[in-house]
Write a structure and sequence with these properties.
Oligomer: heterodimer
CATH topology of the largest domain in chain A: Rossmann fold
CATH architecture of the largest domain in chain B: 2-Layer Sandwich
Strand content of chain B: 15-25%
Strand order of the largest sheet of chain B: 15-12-14-13-17-18-16
CATH class of the largest domain in chain A: Alpha Beta
Helix content of chain A: 40-55%
Number of domains of chain B: 4
Helix content of chain B: 25-40%
Strand order of the largest sheet of chain A: 2-1-3-4
Number of strands of chain B: 18
Number of helices of chain A: 26
Structural class of chain A: alpha/beta
CATH architecture of the largest domain in chain A: 3-Layer(aba) Sandwich
Distance between the termini of chain B: 30 Å
Number of helices of chain B: 16
Largest interface: A-B, 30 and 43 residues
């Protein structure tokens, strides 16, 4: 990251550098407005997709500076992409917002010593290295499980912490007792089918790897039960979506290359991921690395094979489980919350519902506004706590009225956010990945 | 760089409105510089977001005193440039005046503020078993105030009429800030001139609509939706004429040409065939027995006129999906070209086939691409130019083709705009369409209602 004060010119303004048809594609009909959570909450035109694109176009036309107000608005956007689903004209909003944020970062209009240090630590140091993530994970695990966390909370020590840290503390995900690779090496390496029908790679994620390892192992179990040999390359890293969505395209590209090297792209039938946010990003490695002579071809194969777990299970006609999840009180009431990047980013919407509906003992109830963002949105709940809290409240109201015991969803970010909401509201429901419910039903067959 | 704001004006406005409701930054002005119309673009001096009628009146008083033009808008979905700012103006954005004030099931009315999104009105009416029929393509976004100010139509105009047919009473803030009410909840009301009807369709040039009492009707008990597929555009047009001639009044008789059907299918993926010359969407509603009988007759008429196939929506969800897909037609056409210019010429229904043929001929003569869809049942067509505003030579051909389409429309005893209004886009063509006497009367009315000429100046006529 570098700071600059020179005026933009077509040569060095990333929005100007975009193919003009991408910027011009929006014909401002407004079809996106009722689907945009920030517009619906604020009724501010600048906080709508149509408004944001108008600002981007003004920047591209050289009529508007990349100001702090512009930058703030670009980061006020959740990046939920509901507008992209709603847009009949086919505007590529994902590319527009990522480019706008990259321009904001390039010009450093939001830069402050703290923000720059934090971004550098998180984006360039921590989330580029699973080794460092594991180290942090082990420290957190020790804190959470040694009784220290309980002691800190019981003694009210968090009151001494800065306000921001106090707000963040409850959002810190629980660390898994074993990270994905540890569990895989000890329990699952040997259970791969001897004569597999398919050979698939699994991207374990960054946070998911250390905090939702059980979702990864459930995914492995389900895949193995359906004739898939699962390959878990050690050298894989974070998919880079965090970086791409936050204006750090170069690091996103670097991570993409690492993953392309880590996976046997040509030898695998599919490259799978169980987080909506990761899936939405890795499917576009081809676009991200377009023009990179060394990786272009490999990236295009990758993008063809990259699938969300629900899509893959539907494609291979997953075996319906015989075990029931009904409890002593009757069927297990489950509702499904749609991860934005699963629904709007990837168009995966019916497959998870079908999967849930095939599990015996589940009563599936539809959630009102199921595809409305829960406010998690990557790091949005950390960077924009107010809007995030409003959206979580809206979501929790709908969840409460379903009376569901389980809220199913396919994304770790949503899981952390909605678990936080359940605790806040004192609801007894729990969050599960659809694949974990399927794995449980397979286990109940025994 | 963009800066159009005027510090003195801002100060005068913040004296009567909370500062947060007066927007003046370059970023805020940039996003209010356009509406749903292609090409037209003008920065305002500032934007105000009133939350009460009193605030609207206060803004108008400031504007009157200072002779500053006021352009009123809601969600900015207008298609004739009617809500595009004029230079130095205040944009009066009413989206925060968005309360449903009353649902009166004894009198079958609903009273609302102008910023309520029309879809909300339809849903609230449906909650109590009532029906608000006007459904412009933008129903999920556009506000009722904008619908009234443009007398918006929609897909059900043929049987149920347009917005005007459902407005019983209005409250209007006049240019000087005085508040006028016109109309009542009474079905019959002939007390004085019907001023209400002057404000409907006045495009913000006579006053600012601040409250609306709407007429509701009972929900029809049943509905049937049919899709007709035609290999010839004229066969589709003749089918429509034959349905009307058979004394059937469907609630919806829509059509899409091949270009439009391809674009809609490209977005909605609902299985619309794209190898046909025209698709018609035909809907009847009413008593179940009547619906059944009419649907069967429509199917027969379509087949008799050479329909390749007639399909019937099996479920209500499928029917809704078809109608929703149709509503995306205008925006979906943008998949084809960067600039989409939508017209809404309307002809008497007996002249439909002639008009459709003329549009095809004009497109070929001027070498421009026109996708056509629209409300065939009420003669309201949407020939849509697919072009690129950066291509000057093509834009010149588009202009010429558009002029010719307007002339043919007038020759066929039609009108240059059926439901979008005149705004800026059709202003040059209005005198030829309505004649000098009507122009003169309109100018006199405007002068009486708005002596200082501050309300949406330069729209409809100069």
């Amino acid at each position: 990251m570098h700071s600059t004060t020179v005026a933009p010119s077509p040569a060095d303004n990333l929005l100007m550098g975009l193919d003009y048809s991408v910027v011009q594609q929006c014909m401002h009909c407004g079809m996106c407005l009722p689907t945009c959570p920030t517009y619906v909450e604020t009724l501010q035109e600048r906080s709508s997709p149509r408004g944001r694109i108008a600002m981007m176009r003004a920047v591209a036309d050289g009529k508007l500076d990349v100001t702090k107000a512009f930058a703030d608005e670009m980061y006020y956007c959740l990046g939920c992409l509901a507008c992209q689903t709603a847009c009949p004209a086919g505007v590529n909003y994902a590319e527009l917002i990522e480019t706008a944020r990259a321009e904001v970062e390039r010009r450093n209009v939001l830069g402050s010593p703290q923000r720059n240090l934090l971004r550098s630590l998180l984006l360039q140091r921590l989330f580029t290295s699973r080794r460092r993530l594991h180290l942090l994970g082990r420290i957190l695990r020790l804190y959470q499980r040694s009784g220290l966390e309980r002691a800190v909370r019981a003694l009210g020590l968090m009151r001494l912490a800065p306000k921001r840290l106090r707000e963040l503390e409850p959002l810190a995900p629980r660390m898994s007792s074993r990270f994905t690779h540890e569990a895989f090496a000890s329990d699952y390496m040997a259970t791969n089918p001897v004569r597999p029908a398919y050979r698939v790679g699994l991207l374990v994620g960054c946070v998911a790897d250390i905090s939702f390892a059980h979702v990864n192992t459930d995914t492995i179990e389900v895949l193995q039960a359906n004739g898939c040999e699962v390959v878990l390359p050690q050298a894989q890293e974070c998919c880079g979506s965090l970086h791409g969505h936050n204006g750090d395209v170069n690091t996103a590209r670097r991570l993409a290359r690492i993953n392309l090297d880590a996976f046997d792209v040509n030898g695998l039938d599919a490259i799978l991921v169980n987080g909506g946010g990761c899936g939405s990003h890795i499917k576009h490695y081809d676009h991200l690395l377009a023009g990179d002579a060394d990786y272009e071809a490999r990236a295009s194969t990758w993008s063809r094979k990259a699938l969300d777990i629900h899509e893959w299970l539907e494609q291979i006609r997953v075996r319906p489980p015989r075990g029931s999840l009904a409890t002593a009180d009757g069927p297990l009431r489950v509702t499904y919350h749609e991860s934005c990047h699963l629904k709007h980013g990837q168009g995966v919407s019916s497959a998870p519902r079908k999967l849930l509906a095939m599990i015996p003992g589940i009563e599936l109830v539809e959630l009102t506004e199921a595809d409305w963002c829960c406010g998690s949105a990557g790091v949005y709940n950390i960077t924009q706590p107010e809007m995030s809290a409003k959206l979580l409240q809206r979501k929790m109201g709908h969840i409460a009225s379903t009376g569901a015991a389980v809220i199913a969803m396919g994304n770790p970010g949503c899981t952390v956010q909605i678990e936080h909401g359940l605790r806040q509201c004192g609801l007894a429901a729990r969050v599960e990945h659809p694949v974990s419910l399927l794995a449980a039903a397979y286990r109940a067959e025994a | 760089m963009m800066t159009a704001s005027d510090p003195e004006l801002t100060a005068a406005l913040t004296a009567v409105l909370p500062a947060a409701q007066v927007l003046t930054t370059a970023e805020d002005l940039a996003v209010f510089a356009f509406d749903g119309t292609a090409i037209l673009h003008q920065l305002p001096a500032c934007v105000v977001m009133p939350e009460t009628v009193e605030q609207v009146a206060a803004v108008l008083r400031v504007a009157s005193e200072r002779h500053v033009p006021v352009v009123t808008r809601g969600s900015g979905t207008g298609l004739s440039g009617g809500s595009v700012p004029c230079e130095g103006c205040i944009v009066l954005c009413l989206v925060r005046l968005n309360h449903i004030l009353e649902v009166d099931t004894a009198n079958l009315t609903m009273t609302v503020e102008p910023g309520v999104v029309t879809q909300m009105i339809a849903e609230r009416a449906a909650d109590v078993g009532l029906f608000y029929p006007p459904d412009p393509g933008s129903i999920r976004i556009s506000t009722i105030g904008g619908n009234v100010a443009n007398n918006s139509g929609g897909l059900r105009g043929l049987k149920y009429g347009v917005t005007r047919d459902y407005v019983m009473a209005l409250q209007v803030a006049m240019a000087d800030g005085q508040i006028l009410t016109t109309g009542t909840k009474c079905v019959k009301d002939v007390a004085g001139f019907s001023l209400r009807d002057l404000f409907i369709g006045s495009e913000g040039t006579l006053g600012v609509i601040t409250r609306i009492t709407l007429k509701l009707i009972p929900q029809p008990a049943a509905k049937a939706t049919l899709l007709g597929l035609f290999d010839e555009m004229t066969a589709a047009a003749e089918t429509i004429s034959a349905i009307i001639a058979a004394k059937i009044i469907p609630c919806t008789l829509e059509f899409l040409d091949r270009t439009t059907a391809e674009c809609v299918e490209g977005y909605a993926h609902i299985g619309l065939p794209t190898d046909v010359a025209a698709v018609t969407l035909m809907e009847v509603d009413g008593h179940p027995a009547e619906v059944e009988e009419q649907a069967a007759r429509i199917e027969q008429i379509a087949r008799d006129h050479g329909a390749r196939d007639v399909r019937r929506a099996a479920t209500a969800a499928e029917a809704t999906q078809l109608a929703s897909a149709r509503r995306t037609a205008f925006s979906a056409l943008a998949r084809r070209a960067p600039t989409v210019i939508l017209e809404d010429v309307t002809v008497p229904r007996s002249r439909l086939a002639e008009m459709v043929a003329a549009i095809q001929r004009i497109a070929a003569d001027h070498d421009v691409t026109i996708g056509t869809f629209g409300h065939m049942g009420d003669g309201n067509l949407h020939p849509t130019f697919l072009t690129d505003e950066r291509n000057a030579t093509e834009m010149a051909r588009v202009e010429a083709a558009m002029k010719e389409i307007f002339q043919v429309t007038i020759d066929l005893e039609g009108t240059i705009t059926g439901e979008h209004g005149v705004g800026l886009a059709k202003k040059p063509f209005l005198p030829a369409a309505v004649g000098p006497v009507a122009m003169e009367v309109m100018r006199r009315l405007k002068k009486d209602f708005d002596p200082a000429g501050i309300l949406n100046p330069g729209k409809i006529f100069d």
